[in-house]
UniProtKB/TrEMBL annotation:
Pfam families: Polysacc_deac_1
Keyword list, A-Z: Carbohydrate metabolism, Cell membrane, Cell wall, Cell wall biogenesis/degradation, Chitin degradation, Cobalt, Glycoprotein, GPI-anchor, Hydrolase, Lipoprotein, Membrane, Metal-binding, Polysaccharide degradation, Secreted, Signal
Enzyme class: hydrolase
GO molecular function ontology, one term from the record: chitin deacetylase activity
Family to which the UniProt record says this protein belongs: Belongs to the polysaccharide deacetylase family.
Catalytic activity: [(1->4)-N-acetyl-beta-D-glucosaminyl](n) + n H2O = chitosan + n acetate
UniProt subcellular location: Cell membrane; Secreted, Cell wall
Cell division is among the record's keywords: no
Signal peptide stretch: 1-18
Name under which the protein is recorded: chitin deacetylase
GO cellular component, as recorded: plasma membrane; side of membrane
Region of interest called Disordered, as start-end residue ranges on this chain: 26-56
Amino acid sequence: MRLSTNTLLAVLPVFVAAHADHHLHARAQQHARQVPAAAPPPPVASAAGSSSQANVVGTTSSQVAASQSSSPAVAGTSTLPAGSSAASVAGTTSSVSSAAVPSLTVQLQATNPTAVPLASIIPGQVSAATHPLPSTAVAGSVPTFLSNAPPLPTITGLLAANYPPPDRPAPTDSPEVQQWIKEVQDTGVVIPQFSPTNGIGGCANNTAAASDASRCWWTCGGCTRSTDITECPTAMDWGLTYDDGPAFYTPNLLEYLDQEQLKATFFVVGSRVFYNWNMLQSQYMGQHQIAVHTWSHFPLTSLTNEQIIAELGWSRKIIKDVLGVTPNMMRPPYGDIDDRVRAISLAMGLTPVMWTRISPLATFDTDDFNIANGQTSVQQVIQNWENIIGNATTRNSGFIVLEHDLFEQSVEVATGYILPDALGHKNPPFKIQPVIHCLNKDMTDAYIETNNNKTNPPAFQAAVSAGIVTVTGTAAGAKSTGKSAAVTSKSTAGSLWSLAGLALGGLMTLP
Ligand SMILES: [Zn+2]
């Protein structure tokens, strides 16, 4: 099915708002991307023909300077605006304006013969045709690849009246959210009483929270807990993930994945599932893993407990409405998670999945999202990717990379360059698979309704056993009369984000 003009116009405001959301947050958040595993070799002017990842072909003077620098922090760092708080975390950030687009300095193992030329993958590019969904899911069909899965729900359309407004934190006074709050309380989980962060300012404007190690705040320092999934256990295994869809160009990505017989994990935004529920059904029936990426894509640590419950609950619900199954994994937008968000997620049966992070300067984030808004170039994204696989191939365990299917540019760099390059990497090859499979688990383990809870114990029970969360009461999952006061705590910071949400939501009313 080709998206009609009317369809595009109908959903465009959502993507405008989403873009604004990310742009706003990109200025506030810090994401040090990638540096090479080791100091890069000296530039080789006549390196054409070599397949070494670090070869420099067609090097510009600025890149020679970068590659000759003794500081590995210079090469491969992402483009960030001046004043970004990244420097306070990463220590070094080379700020490159979008006008100074670097030439491609790496030689890929392979590219897609039908790839969109790099020169055309730019902000504001002329939109290419969206492809038809590779397969249209049939209502009522049974996902035979998933034991005990219910038939695909029969949907002809979703009613807006049944869901909160898109792309802003959902109200917390609805019967649904009130029920989910009660369910969280009934687990007996003790939610740490941290005040919500001021998400607008990132680490620089949250100095107290950023220095509070007890929060275990990933955003400012990369702290993780043992229940967070941050990598695949086996070397050369790549947990393939795409965030922020389903969106216009998701079918183009699905077509390529089908062609190469690859399966991925999609962390989907509930607001976008509302518009593109048929895509979600195709993804699911295509045996990709579906997981939660919140309702409106706000940074979760900036929200109140109730808002976090609403963000996760509505995304979980719309996926269940469309697929008949409930995911048991989530990825926090921007990786923004701390122990308060963890406790709530786990109490809602959702295991956090991050992307691999070796150091502040080596996160496995391609930064593909920022091509569309001009904050980085496709060449830089490919350089980031090459740095990622340079690091990945030296690890004793596998890895998870952050990529997106929201914008055309991200899909084009994935299908034209990143995935072909990975597939061309033969000795040894990468094993590319959904996160659930790289954990040596079955796809049935990825959904509440199909998980037999043997190889993949429920998230909350596992977290209690691991000592990551505590409960009031006698045992994990026990009904408890003790109510966590934090579930009903309010904060000024959370309200600020609510206002920001309203402002962003206002964009959706633009023509
Ligand atoms: Zn995201």
